[in-house]
Design a protein that fits this description.
The protein is of the alpha/beta class and 195 residues long. The protein is built from three helices and seven strands. The protein has a single domain (10-36, 69-194), classed as 3-Layer(aba) Sandwich (Collagenase (Catalytic Domain)), CATH 3.40.390. Helix content is 23%, strand content 19%.
Length: 195
Amino acid sequence: MRSFLPGLLFILSAMYSANAQRICGAPAYKLQMLKSDPSLNGVFSNIEKQIASVSNKSNGNVARRDTTSNEIIYIPVVIHLLYHNAGENISDVQVKSQMDALNNDFSMSNSDRINTPKAFKPLAADARIRFCLAQVDVQGKRTTGIERKYTTRTSFTTDDGMKMAQKDGIAAWDSKRYLNIWVCNLSSRCVGYRL
């Protein structure tokens, strides 16, 4: 059975058709997973109950996490970059600029924060979470945090093929230690999915 412990997996699309309407593939991906393994319905249900339980507690004595009050949590990220042609093999500079954008969003230092919807303004804050490219790989060796691979596939689907070497993808690093992000060309109008 797959581990879903803080398994936040983002799939980003490097290329997409300019005239196609972009869609999120997460709902289709979840349905596909439930179809292949109906027992996951219970797993998803339990996760949603836990989130609702924590969200509904208004008691100030509830510890949301076991960190100090002003601590910043750093999450090491590995970017798995799959490319079929030179245009899909994006530069390290572009990867780093997207990491900067992600950190700006999570620290609420993004330039468009003034566009926060009124209903969310009282809740908007610095999440005190920062994402950084991994500096050490699973074997303890130095890394840039960017793993590149030429693939013979022109695109991937939401079947998780990009996460499997046997499907010409790249396997995930330990999800308890790293946030894995795949950048590849996704078929159809889907620009990405996560679960």
